[in-house]
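Per your request, structure below.
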């Protein structure tokens, strides 16, 4: 009898012990599940926080003057430090031939084009005109540089057409409008040098630079805004010129250079004030014509002088207003 009772108590104790162990395991699982949820929440908050904090209403913008420090300051409070969340999934490389391209486009400049409409049409574009494909990893990070002054009408149409084109091309990109302050003679090439330097201050990962006039839009989105092994000229057929180059060696309109290519030719010449001339000089830098080879060493990205007056992060682009000085009163190479 006592032996039977002892065996029963032993089984009861084992059952109680198993129940306690099971309860402990369930508690541990629930604890780590809740903990993981909190990590994911803070991770999402950290990823979305800057975009939400910076994104204003459709009609607003953010202005600040950039200090002379290496890293630009937005003037906004930094995001709180949080524990790192789960590792983000690794996205596949973006395809060389994006599947969403539509080919030939109908381009017209007669319909009203308010910026609010352009912003509604491009909800994935972040403040400052930045965009990253959500489903793949681009091979390049592209900065699109636009020399600018008093061309707001053209800019609205450019943004209307170009943001959808660049998004369909699966590019990681930013749009930079380099606005020349004052009414002195325009200097397109110097503004492009400024855009190169200022874009890299914003994001040092830019490795491809597209330099585009504000009134040129491709008529086919298969004209991919990427950089190659050699400098690229995109605007080889313009309707204004009967879809032909105006002359051999023309390199104006829209061109693309990698960061290494741009630095190799010392950027663009700074001393061409007014329209014309700089395109020929740029082409000559690529072909290393003797006279240009001599001048490019002393005139270019290494000698550009300017002052940033204002940086304005608009919903569809970053506007950088700069003072680039005045043209000399004597011939630059006299």
């Amino acid at each position: 009898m006592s032996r039977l009772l002892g065996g029963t108590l032993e089984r009861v104790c084992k059952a109680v012990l198993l129940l306690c162990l099971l309860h402990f395991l369930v508690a541990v699982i629930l604890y780590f599940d809740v903990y993981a949820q909190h990590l994911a929440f803070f991770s999402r908050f950290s990823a979305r926080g800057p975009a939400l904090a910076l994104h204003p209403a459709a009609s607003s913008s953010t202005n600040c003057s950039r200090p002379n420090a290496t890293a630009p300051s937005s003037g906004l409070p930094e995001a709180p430090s949080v524990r790192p969340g789960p590792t983000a999934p690794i996205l596949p490389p973006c395809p060389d031939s994006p599947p969403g391209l539509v080919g030939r486009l109908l381009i017209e400049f007669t319909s009203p084009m308010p910026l609010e409409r352009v912003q509604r049409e491009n909800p994935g574009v972040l403040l400052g005109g930045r965009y990253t494909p959500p489903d793949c990893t681009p091979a390049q990070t592209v900065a699109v540089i636009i020399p600018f002054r008093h061309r707001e009408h053209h800019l609205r149409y450019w943004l209307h057409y170009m943001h959808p084109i660049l998004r369909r091309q699966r590019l990681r990109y930013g749009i930079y409008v380099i606005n020349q302050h004052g009414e002195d003679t325009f200097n397109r090439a110097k503004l492009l040098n400024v855009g190169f330097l200022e874009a890299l201050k914003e994001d040092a990962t830019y490795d491809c630079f597209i330099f585009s006039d504000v009134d040129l839009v491709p008529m086919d989105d298969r004209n991919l805004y990427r950089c190659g092994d050699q400098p690229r000229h995109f605007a080889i057929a313009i309707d204004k010129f009967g879809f032909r180059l105006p002359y051999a060696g023309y390199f104006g309109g829209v061109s693309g250079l990698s960061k290494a290519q741009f630095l190799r030719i010392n950027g663009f010449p700074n001393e061409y004030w007014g329209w014309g001339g700089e395109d020929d000089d740029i082409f000559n830098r690529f072909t290393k014509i003797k006279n240009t080879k001599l001048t490019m060493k002393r005139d270019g990205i290494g000698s550009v002088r300017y002052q940033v007056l204002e940086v304005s992060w608009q919903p569809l682009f970053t506007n950088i207003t700069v003072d680039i000085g005045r043209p000399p009163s004597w011939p630059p190479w006299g």
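Helices lie at 2-54, 115-121, 152-168, 188-202, 259-264, 278-287, 290-295.

Regards,
D.
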